[in-house]
Design a protein that fits this description.
The protein has a single domain, classed as Rossmann fold (3-Layer(aba) Sandwich), CATH 3.40.50.1010. The protein is built from 6 helices and 5 strands; from the N terminus they run E-H-H-E-H-H-E-H-H-E-E. The chain starts with a strand and ends with a strand. The chain has about 120 residues and is an alpha/beta fold. Helices cover about 45% and strands about 15% of the residues.
């Protein structure tokens, strides 16, 4: 399977894995699966840290790579798909992540039930 981690899922995997479901942990630890962290999540983390909404004591890119996760860049093609994405969810970061998951046929690993109406497989 190919998995895309939501930003909170990525952060929890690094610092609070007990907040993840057993299904999520099993899928993320399965060596036959590819686990991706989006450049959008890195952007969201950096912005929240700069605003004082998130305490960041580590380099998230380095942490992702050390955890065996692969970085996934947000492309112009991904961005263009936002124009047709229904507004079930208003958060721009989440909208970009779900667009990435849909366009690349990835399973979106999230706890956010607002992602359910989208045409994308999720893992909660």
């Amino acid at each position: 399977m190919k998995l895309l981690l939501d930003t909170h899922t990525f952060l929890w995997a690094l610092s609070e894995p007990n907040r993840l479901s057993k299904k999520q942990i099993t899928a993320m630890e399965d060596p036959t699966n590819k686990v991706y962290v989006s450049s959008i999540s890195i952007t969201e983390i950096a912005i929240k840290a700069s605003l004082g909404k998130l305490e960041l004591s580590f380099d998230p890119i380095d942490a992702a790579e050390r955890s065996g996760f692969e970085m996934l860049d947000f492309s112009a093609k991904d961005a263009l798909l936002l124009k047709d994405l229904p507004f079930h969810h208003r958060d721009p970061f989440d909208r970009m992540l779900i667009t990435q998951a849909i366009s690349r046929k990835l399973i979106f690993v999230t706890q956010d039930s607002l992602m359910d109406p989208y045409d994308c497989r999720t893992l909660r």
